[in-house]
Amino acid sequence: MAWRAKQKALEWRFGTYKDSYHHLPCLLELLQSRNLGTIIDIGDYQDENGDRILQRAFWSFGCMIEAFQHCRPVLYVDGTFLTGMYKGQLLTCIGVDANNMVVPIAFAFVESENVESWLWFLPLIKRAVVCDRLNVCVLQDWHSGLARPS
């Protein structure tokens, strides 16, 4: 009974999971409009009922993109699973500055860590973050979605 009361209080204060999920595209567009140089990309589709279903969401703040221009030419990409009502993966792109400090560069929510989601995420990193910078090394953990076919 106490757990249900806590859940109701959290929903009343912060909204439901479903509300948060559906407001993500609007939130990212708002962040883009208020943070100069921010890049977002939202992949969605319409289901048979005509509802907009969020499939993927990418974002990199302008300050992160600018920070990478002053970092070492190395990016590390990885994915981790999400817990909670909506399952999926969080893909991350991390840089390293001259003091060996970690610099977050870009993030994406995707349906799973598979070939299609990586082939969607990596070109966005190239277009949004790397741009015309030469000789950037991308390190990864050889997840099966990233591994080259033999």
List the main descriptive attributes of the protein structure presented here:
MULE transposase domain-containing protein; alpha+beta; 30% strand; 6 strands; MULE_transposase_dom; 150 residues
Give a written overview of the molecule.
This protein is an alpha+beta fold. The chain has one domain (2-139). The protein has helices at residues 2-14, 17-34, 62-68, 115-130; strands spanning 39-46, 52-60, 74-81, 89-96, 102-110, 137-139. Strands 1-2-5-4-3-6 form a six-stranded mixed β-sheet, with helices on both faces. It is globular, with a radius of gyration of 18 Å. The mean pLDDT is 87. InterPro entries: MULE_transposase_dom (IPR018289).
Give the helix/strand class.
alpha+beta
What is the rounded Rg?
18 Å
- Weakly predicted, low-confidence segments: none
Q: Any idea how many domains? A: 1
How much is the average pLDDT? Answer: 87
Order of helices and strands: HHEEHEEEHE
